[in-house]
Design a protein that fits this description.
By secondary structure, this protein is an alpha+beta fold. The strands form 6 sheets. The protein has a 5-stranded mixed β-sheet, with no helix packed on it. A hairpin with a 4-residue loop joins strand 5 and strand 6 (92-97). The longest helix is centred in the middle third of the chain and has 40 residues, at 370-409.
Length: 745
């Protein structure tokens, strides 16, 4: 068959099918079409069958200076379906009542009534008379009654900083228009409700038709988030055309998406619209831009850091006390003084009996493997740096993927921000939570510089065979200090990565290096008195890696009872194992041999064991959902026990504390107190649903840019830095004591 013949046959077939469709549809013999002029704000009650169709014609005058929207309310008075088609010049909308809605679990909910706001025409393109036609028809043979009402929407355009109250339900979605005023480039749309349920969805959509305002399609366009009592979305002018956008609110037929219980109502019965009705309030306010606040933020940050750094370096570079400096100079002169006839030795007083629970550290023991110890100590820095490099790279890639998915899909339930204080800069949705981590990086760098200065002074003293460096004070090693400073900087980087898109899956990135910091601090305290038997760098990093691995397993297996049994057994077994590693065999023999009523070492081991067993049993019973924070609590709790025990043993043995060490201890304790106060003020929580997390959102606290969690970042960075200074200066009082007279504990 030739192409021409095929075309003619195809056209003939198309015409024939159209005629058949017309004859079977609207053009069916005996079907009457009634068109009637209708008025706004009038309730029409009528009946429709398969043999008749009614068309309502609504006419109104449209102004080219004002956007006016129309709302259509219909109700089916019988069970049979009725189709409504709403025709305008610029759009067509159709729906059926009774309305059938399917939730995420494929459950069916039926509603008799429905209200929809029609997409308004552009006032610049439409002027004069505008028409709306409402076609009502059904395929059923029996008659079906219905009610129809068409009205204009009052207060359709939202005003800046003016609150507006409205009601919505699954069958009565609402949307409003907002126009940017002059000079405003960014606004925050805030929606609140006095009731937690029903669950609703807040969506920001571009000005276009159709408007996606149903539970089944609200996520098709723009940005959206689930809300209970609070929802907030920051909107930039550059992201939308015509300097305006729609604010859409849809109520879900079920509440599981917001943390509610499954709906127990029967799905084969009709639901009353009032069952899921929610009263809400919306307000659109200008948002502070980063450009406007940067003039105050950066000078404050840099000024605070410079002042703090200056004071810290002044304390550390200057001598700890004039008395110690004079004593060192005197001892140095006596060491190198030319030999002279010595007078008759005076009888020395009997030395005080040494506590039997401690044995003196011998100088030969401290220097026996000096080069090997220094070499292994330096490995800590390179191990931590290597771990940081290979750990951070995939973390950065993963959080950027999360953020990209949230940005492309518009789903703001993926990332758990404080949406009332989330300032977008350069594509990062909450730049303030990222910027506040700069304290970890800068103070970690300052600590490395401080350690380098002390290390350099010590190396120069050793190069000049200074007796004070060779024979006085504890054995000086700085590798762990370098590792601690590097870990603090890495913690700042990983915390910033986590806050790119905070959620349950990447919270482990925010805590992993906190485990490492806690472990390094404990290793350093132990190294102060056991330089030659300190844990090897590779073994120590391997143990820390096991802790991080258990934390990752806990994120996925947290809900399993068997996992908690497994973890609790490991935790309890680690208590005696840690005691065996940290206490020498000679001390164990002495403890079993002497059996004193009070022994500091026995008391420390008892407290250590009891607290850890209590924490392990409590964790197994309660089974906290935030497993990473639970493991971090265990690490910090043990570090605090060891530090307090170390300070207690120094006091018990009458060892001197320098004023700088006392200042650092008090300073770190005070700052930690304030930091934990702000840490407890959660402004988001990935342990809950995204909608429930937004219930904790609050406005910015500092400079209209930083919230309470940012303050926690700043204070915790200072507190960690102060804690590092405690470890750096805690034994400076022993610099005037000969090494052979220093106790081991």
């Amino acid at each position: 068959m030739s192409p021409g013949v095929r075309s003619v046959c195809g056209f003939t077939l198309l015409v024939w099918m159209s005629m058949v469709q017309f004859d079977c549809g609207y053009g069916q013999s005996g079907k009457s079409v009634l068109q009637r002029e209708a008025e706004y704000n009038v309730m029409y009650k009528d009946t429709v069958t398969s043999k008749n169709q009614t068309i309502y014609a609504f006419n109104c005058i449209v102004s080219n200076t004002e956007t006016r929207a129309v709302r259509v309310a219909v109700e089916a008075l019988s069970h049979r379906p009725i189709q409504f088609v709403l025709r305008q010049k610029h759009s067509v909308l159709s729906f059926q009542v009774p309305l059938i809605i399917r939730d995420s679990n494929e459950r069916i909910f039926k509603y008799r009534s429905m209200e929809r706001t029609l997409c308004p025409p552009d006032p610049l393109q439409v002027s004069g008379q505008d028409s709306l036609f409402v076609d009502v028809w059904t395929s059923g043979s029996d008659s079906s009654q219905y009610q129809l009402r068409v009205s204009h929407v009052d207060n359709f355009t939202l005003e800046t900083d003016k609150k507006f109250n409205f009601r919505a339900s699954p069958t009565q979605p609402q949307f409003f228009k907002y126009d940017y005023p002059e000079g405003v480039d960014r606004v925050t749309v805030k929606v609140t409700s006095q009731t937690k349920f029903p669950c609703a969805v807040l969506s920001i959509q571009d000005i276009q038709c159709p408007v996606y305002d149903l539970d089944s399609n609200v996520d098709f366009l723009g940005m959206y988030q689930t809300i209970t009592t609070l929802g907030a979305i920051t909107v930039k002018r550059a992201d939308f055309h015509n300097d305006s956008f729609y604010v859409v609110v849809v109520v879900n037929p079920e509440d599981e998406a917001c943390g509610g219980l499954p709906n127990s109502s029967m799905t084969d019965t009709f639901r009353d619209t009032t069952e899921q009705t929610k009263s809400l309030e919306v307000v659109v306010s200008p948002s502070v831009t980063f450009k406007a606040t940067s003039k105050d933020v950066f000078p404050l940050l840099m000024g605070s850091i410079l002042v703090f750094v200056s004071i810290t370096l002044a304390f550390l570079v200057c001598p700890t006390s004039k008395q110690d400096e004079r004593r060192r100079e005197t001892e140095h002169e006596e060491t190198y003084r030319s030999p002279q006839p010595e007078p008759e030795p005076e009888p020395e007083p009997e030395p005080e009996p040494e506590p039997e629970n401690m044995e003196p550290m011998r100088e030969s023991d401290a220097a026996q493997n000096d080069q090997e110890v220094l070499k292994d100590d330096a490995v800590y820095l390179w191990n931590i740096a290597t771990i940081a490099a290979f750990y951070a790279l995939p973390v950065i890639q993963l959080v950027l993927i999360y953020h990209t998915i949230a940005d492309v899909t518009g789903n703001q339930d993926i990332c758990y921000y404080n949406f009332l204080c989330a300032h977008s800069v350069g594509g990062l949705s909450s730049f303030n939570n990222i910027l506040s981590n700069v304290g970890y990086v800068l103070l970690g760098l300052v600590f490395l510089i401080t350690v380098f200065i002390k290390h350099l002074k010590h190396k120069r003293a050793l190069a000049h065979n200074d007796t004070n460096a060779l024979e006085f004070g504890i054995h000086k090693s700085f590798g762990l200090f370098y590792a601690m400073g590097t870990a603090l900087m890495t913690e700042g980087l990983l915390s910033a990565c986590y806050h790119v898109c905070p959620n349950a899956n990447n919270f482990q990135f925010d805590t992993s290096f906190m485990y490492i910091i806690s472990g390094l601090c404990m290793f350093k305290l132990y190294q102060n008195r056991h330089p030659n038997i300190n844990t090897r760098a590779h073994s120590a990093c391997g143990c820390l890696g096991v802790v991080v691995y258990l934390s990752v397993l806990g994120v996925k297996g947290n809900g399993s009872l068997w996992f908690w049994i497994f973890f609790t057994i490991i935790h309890i077994l680690s208590v005696p194992l840690t005691a065996l590693l940290f206490v020498s065999w000679e001390d164990w023999k002495r403890l079993f041999k002497d059996r004193k009523l009070f022994d500091p070492l026995a008391l420390g081991l008892l407290v250590f064991g009891i607290i850890n067993i209590i924490v392990a049993v409590t964790g197994a019973i309660v089974r906290p959902t935030d497993f990473s924070s639970y493991v971090l609590f265990i690490a910090i709790c043990n570090l605090l026990i060891y530090l307090l025990f170390y300070i207690f043993l120094k006091w018990w043995n009458k060892e001197r504390f320098t004023r700088l060490a006392i200042f650092c201890i008090v300073f770190a304790g005070i700052v930690w107190g304030f930091a934990l106060h702000f840490f407890r003020q959660h402004r988001s929580s990935w342990q809950k649903t995204a909608a429930e997390s937004r219930e904790h959102n609050s406005d910015c606290m500092v400079l209209s840019f930083f919230d309470t969690h940012d303050v926690w970042h700043f204070l915790s960075a200072i507190a960690l830095f102060g804690s590092f200074l405690v470890l750096l200066t805690i034994d400076d009082g022993l610099d005037s004591v000969r090494r052979k007279d220093i106790r081991i504990f």
